[in-house]
Automatic annotation (TrEMBL):
It comes from the Eukaryota. The lineage of its organism: Eukaryota, Viridiplantae, Streptophyta, Embryophyta, Tracheophyta. One of its GO terms (molecular function) is oxidoreductase activity, acting on the CH-CH group of donors. This is 3-oxo-5-alpha-steroid 4-dehydrogenase C-terminal domain-containing protein. It comes from Tetracentron sinense (Spur-leaf). Residues 159-309 form the 3-oxo-5-alpha-steroid 4-dehydrogenase C-terminal domain. GO terms for biological process: very long-chain fatty acid biosynthetic process. Belongs to the steroid 5-alpha reductase family.
């Protein structure tokens, strides 16, 4: 069969098109494009069916597991696909690793090294117990996230655009530096011993709960990440769709109760805002996938992220 590959403007990407076997899969098509272009490896390619100009419908993305023939319609032996270059890609594990490594390294630098001299503070630095516990708490959190990235999460998407590494690192590394600066500052004033214990105690419970939520999510997929999206259930997932985000937000609340910095609360608000938007989208997706029609399961009534508000 003959496949013509065009750009979104209609320009032919591969002169003369590609000849594929009748049983070729979309994965074979991706490989064939890579062999001819030498530049666009499969995860860089997005292939869709052409849409009529003027229509508002979304283009159909070719599914790697299907046969190319399935998209031909009727018994035609010709297919035109629209190619989009997604740009350089990195694996999700690499993306997450770099974004979490920054805070894990930056925070201890502010604790262990005499950086404040360079900001004009000549006074002797007295380290309060809460600052030491905050260091342990912070490092445990980001170390846990890196371990979960490699050994717990089963990602459905293989790669992410390289540009996201810079965007996400800017977010995590900047907030890491901002909070570390104020937490380890020579003029830092600690909260009461009781408040510190309540904050860290509550935060640690939430970190353990967050880890357990990630284990429950992991068990929704097969080891290679296939299985699509399922209805999460068990533990807090019986009440709230994104229980992992709920526990993440609460564990930062615990950290802030114990440490009381403006920087920490800013991070809490920004992170909660981002996760709330993601949670709304995930909740919508699950309700759409499990609509209770044509034999499909019906998504149960649940809070989205922060019961009893949302
Ligand atoms: N502080 C912050 O600013 C912040 C922001 C975001 C996240 N986090 C932390 O990082 C953790 C991971 O974040 P994330 O956004 O990657 O979490 P996520 O999308 O909720 O899920 C984690 C893993 O579970 C999979 N998964 C989620 N729902 C599923 C379902 N219904 N069926 C099957 N698999 C499902 C995801 O698959 P896919 O690969 O398909 O997505 C992903 O591999 C969070 O839980 C949170 O603790 C912190």
């Amino acid at each position: 069969m003959k496949v013509t590959v065009v750009s979104r403007s209609g320009r032919e990407i591969i002169k003369g098109g590609l000849d594929l076997n009748d049983g070729a899969t979309v994965t074979d098509l991706h490989e064939a494009i890579y062999r001819r272009t030498k530049k666009y490896y499969p995860s860089r390619q997005r292939l869709t069916l052409p849409v009529q100009s003027g229509t508002k419908e979304k283009p159909v993305v070719l599914n790697s597991r299907k046969n190319v023939q399935d998209y031909c319609g009727g018994n035609s032996d010709n297919l035109t696909v629209v190619f989009k270059d997604l740009g350089p890609q990195v694996s999700y594990r690499i993306l997450f690793f770099w974004e979490y490594l920054g805070p894990l390294i930056i925070y201890p630098i502010f604790y262990f090294f005499p950086v404040y001299q360079y900001f004009g503070y000549k006074v002797e630095r007295v380290i309060h117990p809460v600052q030491t516990y905050a260091l342990y708490y912070w490092c445990f959190h980001y170390f846990k996230r890196i371990m979960e990235t490699f050994f717990v999460h089963r990602f459905s998407h293989a790669t992410s655009p390289l540009a996201n590494v810079f965007r996400n690192c800017a977010y995590y590394w900047t907030f890491g530096s901002y909070i570390a600066y104020y937490m380890n500052h020579p003029l830092y004033t600690p909260v009461s011993d009781l408040q510190m214990k309540i904050g860290f105690g509550f935060g640690l419970i939430c970190q353990v709960a967050n880890f357990y939520c990630h284990l429950l999510l992991r068990n929704l997929r097969r080891p290679e990440g296939s299985g699509g999206y399922q209805i999460p259930s068990g533990f807090l997932f019986n009440i709230v769709t994104c229980a992992n985000y709920t526990t993440e937000i609460y564990q930062w609340l615990g950290f802030n109760i114990a440490t009381q910095t403006f920087a920490g609360y800013v991070f809490l608000v920004v992170a909660a805002f981002i996760m709330t938007n993601w949670a709304l989208a995930k909740h919508r997706r699950l309700k759409k996938l499990f609509d209770g029609k044509e034999g499909r399961l019906k998504y149960p009534r649940r809070w989205v992220i922060l019961p009893p508000f949302l």
